[in-house]
Sulfurtransferase (Cellulosimicrobium cellulans), 307 residues
Amino acid sequence: MTAPAPRGPGLGTDDRGTDAARRSRVLVTAPALAEALTGDRPPVVLDVRWALGVTDGREQHRAGHIPGAAYVDLESELAAPPSAAAGRHPLPEPADLQAAARRWGVRADRPVVVYDAVGGTSAARAWWLLRWAGHDDVRILDGGLAAWSATGRALDEGEVRPEPGDVVVTPGGMPVLDADGAADIATSGVLLDARAGERYRGEVEPVDPRAGHVPGAVSAPTTGNLAPDGTFLDAAALRDRFAGLGVAGVTAAASAADGGRAVGVYCGSGVTAAHEIAALATLGVDAALYAGSWSQWSNDPARPAAT
């Protein structure tokens, strides 16, 4: 688990790293995590079990977790309180995130591995936030808890109370969009909608005030990033997927000033969109997160909804 190197601006392999190297800066396998936990500099492991409408993540953690993993509450620690103006999962205040990360035992000199039981779709929120906060050495456990258990490794039970960490949160490590920025990228670049297709099309809307999508956005359900076993698709399959969505030849959002077209991602509330950003990062594309996502957009009557 080495420190990350700079990410390349496009989907093709470039002189800044191979597909395997880029992938290893975002994901870690269960065997590699197990080996790292026995080393001189073991990673901090965070259990981010969460799903929309499911509130028993802490109970699941107590019943069985990767040894040493601290539980992270997505609703209260990875988001600020919800509001119509900011959405269902606004970005937390930096001071609040720093206090939470220190409770989890996150240290500036230690790698972090995050996992869940849903293919990384909730753990990716912690991955994105810690990278946004300036901690570059963060990875998602590829395949999550199921991948760990499939190797025959044991789980621990009960509470985990780690030694307090010392991480200092410095926002700005990942690009962020507001509603105006998302609207701009939808016309000048590529804006991916990571929700289920039926929500994008406006056929159903179980959570937010209005159905539909940001005009100009492209449907790209997060589940399309995963293989049947819950691991991320390989680089070739992901590259084909995003090329089919119009991302081929598009530069990273951070490089848009160089004449490229930017990539943005949103979902319902900025959680599963982080998973799509992680998938793009394995290919060297730094996509921007529209943090308020559809929950913010649909609460503003001045914003149009396409179906």
